[in-house]
Specification:
Length: about 280
DNA sequence: CGGCAAACCTGCGAGC
DNA sequence: TGCTCGCAGGTTTGCC
C-alpha cells in the first residue's frame, strides 16, 4: 500500500538495517521492473556503504558512499522485507536481494512489477526525469493553502483527480485523496478551480493530518510489533471512507452511508451529505 | 496545457 | 472445485 506514509515507514524501517552498512552481496534476479535496471546493477552496488535513506514523494533514495544514489519506487505492490541472510530460496517475485555485512537481508519483492530501481549521481538526483516534475511535499511547511490554491487555478477536472497529480502535490495516492477530502468536507466531484480559499484552507491541513496520522500509526506498530515476516509498512489501517461503500458515515447520521464512484478510472469514496 | 483511456503486470475475491 | 470477471494502494504514454 505504498503512498507517501507507507514509503516513509519503509524508509524508517530500512534505515537501522542499511544505514552505515556495506552491501556485501546484491542479487538482481531479473532485468527490469517497470523500467530496465541499470546495467551491472548488482556489481555497482556490491561493496558500497549506504550512507543515508530518505524519501521524496513516493520515491525512496539510498545515498551510497561513492556518490551514487539508489532511487526506488514500490509501485502498487512493491514491498521491502527484512530478514536474515540464509538459504531460504527466493520467491517468484523477489526481484532484488540486498545482504549487508552485518548478516541482514532486505528483499525487494513486487508481484505486479510496477516498481522501479535506478541509479543516479547524487548531484543529478533533483533533475532526474522521474523527480524533476514533482510538486511540493505535502508535509513541508512550504506547502500552504496559498500554494495549493494557485495550483488548482484553471483546472476544470475534479478536485479528487487533481490531488493525484504528482506535479501538483507529490505523494498523495488514491486512499489519502478520498480520506483528506472527507476530513475537509469537500465533495470530490467539485471542479478543482472552484474551491474557495476557505475550502483550500481546510483541505491543506486535512491532507497533512491524514498523512501524519498514518505515519504515526505505522511508526508505532513498527516499533511495537516487529512483524514475523519482517515486512515494513503494511499494517492494518483504519480508513474513514476508503473501501467502505455502504457503511455508515463516521461523520454524520445520513441513511445513505459512504458512496463509491469512479473518477479517472479510480475508485473514490465519500459522504454525499457531509461533503459539499 | 488539460483531460481521459489505455497500458504495464499479477493476485485475489466474488459469483456462477 | 474450478472457471471467469472485476478490481487493486502507481505512473507513463498517447490521443483528442
Amino acid at each position: 500500500m505504498p503512498e507517501l506514509p507507507e514509503v516513509e515507514i519503509v524508509c524508517r524501517g530500512l534505515a537501522p538495517v542499511l544505514e552505515g552498512r556495506r552491501l556485501a552481496l546484491v542479487q538482481v534476479r531479473r532485468a527490469n521492473l517497470r523500467l530496465p535496471f541499470p546495467v551491472d546493477l548488482a556489481l555497482r552496488l556490491t561493496g558500497r556503504r549506504v550512507e543515508a535513506i530518505t524519501r521524496r514523494a513516493k520515491y525512496m533514495t539510498w545515498r551510497l558512499d561513492d556518490g551514487w544514489v539508489v532511487l526506488g519506487h514500490l509501485g502498487m505492490s512493491g514491498r521491502m522485507i527484512i530478514g536474515p541472510c540464509d538459504d531460504t530460496p527466493p520467491g517468484r517475485h523477489d526481484h532484488v536481494i540486498f545482504d549487508t555485512d552485518e548478516g541482514r537481508r532486505v528483499t525487494f519483492t513486487d508481484p505486479r512489477r510496477f516498481g522501479l530501481l535506478d541509479l543516479v549521481r547524487a548531484e543529478d538526483l533533483a533533475g532526474h526525469r522521474l523527480l524533476c516534475k514533482l510538486g511540493p511535499e505535502p508535509l513541508d511547511d512550504a506547502f500552504t493553502a496559498k500554494v495549493l490554491k494557485a495550483g488548482l487555478a484553471g483546472r476544470s477536472g475534479p478536485i479528487k483527480v487533481a490531488l493525484l497529480d504528482q506535479t501538483l502535490i507529490a505523494g498523495i495516492g488514491n486512499i489519502y485523496a478520498s480520506e483528506a477530502l472527507f476530513r475537509a468536507g469537500i465533495d470530490p466531484t467539485r471542479a478543482a478551480s472552484s474551491l474557495t480559499a476557505k475550502e483550500v484552507g481546510r483541505l491543506v491541513p486535512a491532507l497533512k493530518e491524514v498523512l501524519l496520522a498514518s505515519i504515526a500509526s505505522g511508526g508505532s506498530s513498527l516499533r511495537d510489533h516487529r512483524l514475523p515476516s519482517g515486512e515494513l509498512g503494511y499494517f492494518q489501517h483504519s480508513f474513514a471512507v476508503y473501501d467502505r461503500e455502504g457503511e455508515p458515515c463516521p461523520g454524520c447520521d445520513c441513511a445513505q452511508g459512504i458512496s463509491r464512484i469512479v473518477q479517472a478510472g479510480r475508485a473514490t469514496y465519500f459522504c454525499k451529505k457531509r461533503q459539499k
